[in-house]
Amino acid sequence: MATFVLIHGMFHGGWCWDKVKAALEADGHTVYAPDLAGCGKDTTPPMQVTLQRWTDDLVALLNGIDGKVVLLGHSRGGLPISQVAEAVPEKIAALVYLTALMLPNGKAAMHMADIGAEAGIELQMGLIQPRPNADGTALIPNEGADEIFYGDCSAEDRAWAIPQVGHEPMIPLGTPVSLSPERYGSVPRIYIETTLDRTLPINNQRAMIAVSKPTEVISFECDHMPNVTHVPELVAALENIAERYAAREAA
């Protein structure tokens, strides 16, 4: 059985993995879905939340786990998983980017236009328009969360998820990633694209894919939250990845 570490995206916490976590655990896997600092139930002041803090916290988590893990980042969660792979590539069997920011060395989230130009792909405007606060966070109003994240979800899932959507610390988004081919580049990277995504549109995903060149690409025909809307399909994909990469490492 494999060990998965699942990292949430903007405005979310580890709670957004509840369905995926339960399904993977039911199949015998070990799953961690932490709240990043300043997110979910974590109370770290937002001005103390940096990409390095997220990286250090996740490195400490991975170092406390026996063997290698499949490390997945959703959406903005792609930023810290890239830095963790640079820090401890020996702890990671595979990186999985689930409609996530997979940025090349030296780029921050604000540099998407540069990535699109390098890829020769015209970027699309996503629905997400966060409202900045004076405390260093941004907020999506509940009505915005409904459309941006959960427009294709059931009424039951929207009622569960939307009240839990919270503030997002903004400092990490402005921080360029620092990656090397020797460390980060040594880890297999799988990108799961979502072709109907209105938050991180498919052109934007494919620009990052073209520039960052993952090991493989898996395509889901869905919006931005397959961890809520397409749980069986996502679990099957993750178990297949674990079988091919984590099992190979164990052997």
From TrEMBL:
<dbReference type="InterPro" id="IPR000073">
    <property type="entry name" value="AB_hydrolase_1"/>
</dbReference>
<dbReference type="Pfam" id="PF12697">
    <property type="entry name" value="Abhydrolase_6"/>
</dbReference>
<dbReference type="GO" id="GO:0009696">
    <property type="term" value="P:salicylic acid metabolic process"/>
</dbReference>
<dbReference type="GO" id="GO:0080032">
    <property type="term" value="F:methyl jasmonate esterase activity"/>
</dbReference>
<dbReference type="InterPro" id="IPR045889">
    <property type="entry name" value="MES/HNL"/>
</dbReference>
<dbReference type="GO" id="GO:0080030">
    <property type="term" value="F:methyl indole-3-acetate esterase activity"/>
</dbReference>
<dbReference type="InterPro" id="IPR029058">
    <property type="entry name" value="AB_hydrolase_fold"/>
</dbReference>
<protein>
    <submittedName>
        <fullName>Alpha/beta fold hydrolase</fullName>
    </submittedName>
</protein>
<keyword id="KW-0378">Hydrolase</keyword>
<dbReference type="GO" id="GO:0009694">
    <property type="term" value="P:jasmonic acid metabolic process"/>
</dbReference>
<feature type="domain" description="AB hydrolase-1">
    <location>
        <begin position="4"/>
        <end position="237"/>
    </location>
</feature>
<dbReference type="GO" id="GO:0080031">
    <property type="term" value="F:methyl salicylate esterase activity"/>
</dbReference>
